[in-house]
Design a protein that fits this description.
single chain; 2% strand; elongated
Length: 326
């Protein structure tokens, strides 16, 4: 178990490795799902059955990607209370950019499922033998001596049932469908790889910071995220112990300083990049812009710079996730 946690920790730090593991686990799950669960009905439900097995698991994986995204919950939490600010075009555009970045990350597992399923061909065979497109069915049965009978019994081909259509013709039809499925699968893989390369190149090309500073920024984001979890757990434990001690022993509670709701809100918002300020996270900005005013550690923000923050560049999308990327 410790070794497995170590692997997951490394995958979380290196997003490309994490994406590779997600794709690998998804491919393995699809293979097991296809061999154990999937059984083409070989009737009028072929199209719907194949379509459900091809797309519904991909949709479930996409939703799971949104659920597991830290940036998605940062964007969503408290959004209904900020509707007036959200209606501003600049903020709406910023939210759209963040949502697109979250979606591209969440699409890794669904696209892997669809690509592997198409390379396997079972779902596609069941799906296309149940289609009602006459022109396509006629094309599949063009080598058969009895095209009409072939089109009528097309939905039974995946099951290999006894039929008046020669076995050689049925195998040719299934080979054609499998070939079409694999062509689509490899095309999808090529499209995903090319899109990923282009988006990465665009993000790097438009990066407002240098390569070395970007490496440092990633290291900082990772360390801050790790230490934030550690400090939060330690502080929560101290506060809980104080409250329980005060409750059971009936003693006055010790003075423990806890950030206010306003403070938590300031460090929980999504990071906004500015060329004038040199902050590596929302926590960094908050700490630098606050100062001690009295013995009770009451804090107030300093005057902001006149330059407004820009939408977070694509190359800095790791800041809110607290993980490393190549």
């Amino acid at each position: 178990m410790d070794k497995f946690k170590t692997v997951l920790n490394i995958a979380n730090k290196q997003s490309n490795l994490g994406f590779g593991l997600i794709a690998l686990f998804t491919a393995g799950g699809e293979q097991m799902f296809s061999s154990v669960v999937f059984r083409c009905p070989c009737n009028e439900l072929n199209f719907l059955y194949g379509l459900v097995f091809l797309l519904v698991p991909a949709l479930a994986l996409l939703l799971l990607g949104y659920i597991l995204s830290k940036r998605a919950w940062k964007l969503l939490t408290g959004l209904c209370r900020r509707r007036a600010k959200l209606c501003r075009w600049r903020r709406l555009t910023g939210c759209g950019v963040v949502l697109f970045q979250i979606t591209t990350t969440a699409m890794v597992a669904p696209s892997s499922w669809i690509a592997v399923a198409l390379l396997n061909g079972n779902y596609f065979e069941c799906l296309m033998t149940g289609t009602n497109v006459s022109a396509y069915n006629k094309h599949l049965c063009e080598d058969s001596n009895s095209q009409v009978q072939c089109q009528r019994e097309l939905h039974t081909f995946p099951c290999g049932r006894a039929s008046s259509i020669p076995q050689a013709v049925r195998e040719d039809v299934l080979f054609t469908l499998r070939a079409q499925s694999q062509i689509l699968g490899w095309t999808l893989i090529a499209f995903i790889m090319l899109s990923n390369l282009l988006l990465t190149c665009m993000a790097r090309c438009t990066s407002p910071i240098s390569y070395k500073q970007l490496q440092f920024w990633r290291a900082y984001a990772e360390e801050e995220s790790t230490l934030m979890n550690s400090y939060a757990a330690k502080h929560a434990k101290e506060l809980a112990e104080r409250n329980l001690k005060s409750f059971f022993k009936k003693t006055p509670p010790e003075n423990i300083i806890t950030p206010s709701n306003r403070d938590w809100e300031k460090i929980s918002c999504l990071y906004k990049f500015s060329t004038k300020d040199h902050y590596y996270s929302t926590l960094h900005r908050y700490v630098e812009n606050c100062h001690e005013t009295d013995s009770r550690m009451m804090r107030m923000t300093s005057v902001r710079s006149s330059e407004t923050a820009d939408n977070n560049p694509a190359v800095l999308n790791f800041v809110d996730d607290g993980r490393m990327t190549l």
